[in-house]
Amino acid sequence: MSFERELVSADADGEERQIEAALRPKRLAEFIGQARVREQLSLVLESALRRQRPPDHVLMSGSPGLGKTTLAMIIAAELGAPLRITSGPALERAGDLAAILSTLADGEVLFIDEIHRMARPAEEMLYMAMEDFRVDIVVGKGPGATAIPLDIAPFTLVGATTRAGLLPAPLRDRFGFTAHMDFYETGELELVLRRSAALLGVDLPDDAGNEIARRSRGTPRIANRLLRRVRDYADVRAGGVVDREVAASALDLYEVDGEGLDRLDRAVLGALLRKFGGGPVGLSTLAVSVGEEPETVEVVAEPFLVRQGLIARTPRGRVATAAAWTHLGMTPPPDAFGAGHFT
Ligand SMILES: Nc1ncnc2c1ncn2[C@@H]1O[C@H](COP(=O)(O)OP(=O)(O)OP(=O)(O)O)[C@@H](O)[C@H]1O
Questions:
Q1: How far is the C-alpha of 198 from the C-alpha of 1, rounded, in Å?
Q2: How far is the CA of 224 from the centre of ligand 1 (A)?
Q3: Which domain range does residue 293 map to?
Q4: Catalytic residue positions?
Q5: Considering only CA atoms, which residue is closest to atom 1 of ligand 1?
Q6: Which residues are annotated as a binding site for DNA?
Q7: pLDDT attached to residue 14
Q8: What is the pLDDT of residues 214-264, one digit of tens each?
Q9: Alpha helices in 201-336 (DSSP H)
Q10: What is d(CA 109, CA 72) in angstroms, rounded to the nearest whole number?
Q11: Which CATH number do you get for residue 196?
């Protein structure tokens, strides 16, 4: 069974993408949170505008749903430049990338989502394109093959990745600026929710917004999704009125717990405690025990559980902290990791 499309998963499906488009902040000033990234980026953009040159290539890393696509769109908007969007998995051959690069307009922003999943030949072509605004088009095969150099328009690459550690160093080094996107604070998510509620025409009292924000896994995409589920619940069961109790009841119904943990999070924690006595256990073993891919556990569940102080990574594997035992209603063993710090 896959948890990927669950309520608190940070992935978006087709219909959701349309709603997301409507809720996306369009300019840097509207973008909430990530203060450091915003300030750094605004300097990069302003200086590029002053010099009338495309800015350095930008790499954004962070968990799904934290606003990487939104920021890529904002970069293009702030520069007044056109934007081309593609993703690593769509670039299977060098030719796929060459077709895009050779048709870029001067100053265009090229956004490659999931850039760590690009195929090797495309990646190698990208090195030269990023550095020299040039690509080698290979014509023919075998010993008779020739490389024809082709100049391309100066452009800005914006790459996004959930797994910066997987990017080969030569690629990582070619980005002039790396933005690390962190989970959002509850107060920031309250602002995201207030803005979205206004756009969706939902009357959201502050305490209800706080309840949703606390349970959104530090992720704007999830906050917006939970807001819509709370609105549905209020429409059907509470005469359209959203308050803290209605929000809490709706989120309980959708199995989002008081700390925002979803079913995958709880499955991972539960397995770690019940099957492995709190660990240490390797990521792959843990993933198999909940019927998920290691990557899903590593990218989707683990960063948030670590951030909440429920799981720790140690050289010997993942371990549950004392707080994890308490969270699932169990008594932590005396030697539980972090006992005394987290209880
Ligand atoms: N800082 C923010 N302020 C307001 N809304 C935000 C912010 N960041 C993200 N959002 C909202 O969250 C939704 C998801 O953001 P986005 O698609 O940019 O995430 P992402 O990191 O690119 O995710 P993925 O990598 O999974 O595509 C968007 O609808 C956007 O409206």
A1: 36
A2: 9
A3: 263-342
A4: 68-69, 113, 162, 221
A5: 32
A6: 313, 318
A7: 72
A8: 999 999 999 999 999 999 999 999 999 999 999 999 999 988 888 889 889
A9: 206-214, 220-237, 244-253, 263-274, 283-289, 294-296, 302-307, 322-327
A10: 8
A11: 1.10.8.60
**What ipTM goes with this model?**
0.96
Nearest CA to ligand 1 atom 26: 64
Residues 303 and 244 in one domain: no
The two tokens of residue 145 are 């093959």
Predicted TM-score of the model (pTM): 0.88
- Same structural domain for residues 87 and 120? yes
Do 143 and 285 share a structural domain?
A: no
Binding site, annotated residues for ATP: 23-24, 65, 68-70, 131-133, 174, 184, 221
pLDDT of the residue at 54: 94
**204 in a domain, yes or no?**
yes
- CB of 111 within 6 A of ligand 1: the answer is no
Q: Which atom of ligand 1 is nearest to the CA of 195?
A: 4
Q: Do the Cβ atoms of 147 and 138 come closer than 8 Å? A: yes
CB of residue 61 inside a 6 A radius of ligand 1 = no
Number of structural domains (the chain) is 3
> Would 258 be classed as within a structural domain?
no
Please say which residue of 253, 279, 305 terminates a domain. Answer: 253
